[in-house]
Amino acid sequence: MSLKPYKRSRVAIVGMGAVGTTTGYTLLLRQRMSELVFIDVNVKKAKGEMLDMNHGLPFLGGVKVWAGDYEDCRDADIIIVTAGASQKPGETRIDLLKRNAEIFESIIDNIVKVNTHGILLIATNPVDILSYISWKRSGWPSSRVIGSGTLLDSARFRYLIGKQKGIDPRSIHAHIIGEHGDSELPVWSTANVAGTPLELEEDTKNEIFESTKNAAYEIIDAKGATSYAIGLALDRIVAAILGDEGSVLNVSTLLEDYNGVSDVYLGVPSIVDHNGVREILDLPLNDEERARLLQSADKLKDQISKVHL
């Protein structure tokens, strides 16, 4: 039985690189929306991806797919932004951040000129900082500017724990929070299987977390980019929004007095529905975890301070 798209819904994807294209294909296969539009500075590339997917519609049906421009964001319920510059040889992360911040200013300005009601879903790295910049630039409520956050990191974490324990990762309840990056942290204190605390040796815990944190580097080294799992993560967020699910997802959102953290976007468990982030859950942390979360926040704040907003 085929999936039915949510009625009268449009998703726009800005940036048709590996992540944008895979996300679009995933959304199409699962028929999350009735309309899907691709936007890219390389118009020919967007058109090619659109044609390739349209030729599969006889096997799927139900979804209108086209290559457009920012005007097509006007009626979009969700605008997913995956566009951005890649790091050049010898370029620092701060230099890359500055270039992507400039690109994002133009992207966000073009979106908010035509759309006042949608939800911005940011996936470009550094995702937490670019989500914060998008929130500032758009003037929209923070609930409607969401980053992919540590949703994928948490999935990787649960997969590796499940593999170690021989348990379906969907039955593992464990979180990665903080930056989607090197300062992220595992919340071992609440990790469990059906309410039963996880029993793992410290060395095993460290190995699992290091593999989680370095997963993207390993994949990029092997194939050049991550695409499939992040596409599935973005699809999961879209489903929660369009389906008004009230699902708990580790997305990046604006924190205010969260375990001592304020005025920064970080990935934490949040309730996501048709309004975006409805509520941020107060995840209990031990002293070590709280200290590491503060360090993660301070790192991002320092990087943000180097970018002109």
Give a description of the structure.
- The chain is of the alpha/beta class.
- It contains ten helices and twelve strands.
- The protein has helices at 18-29, 43-54, 57-60, 93-114, 127-138, 151-165, 202-213, 215-223, 228-242, 287-305; strands at 10-14, 35-39, 64-67, 78-81, 119-122, 145-147, 172-177, 185-193, 196-197, 247-255, 264-273, 276-280.
- The strands form three sheets. It has a six-stranded parallel beta sheet with strand order 3-2-1-4-5-6, with helices on both faces. A three-stranded antiparallel beta sheet has the order 7-8-9. Strands 10-11-12 form a three-stranded antiparallel beta sheet.
- It starts with 9 loop residues before the first strand and ends with a helix.
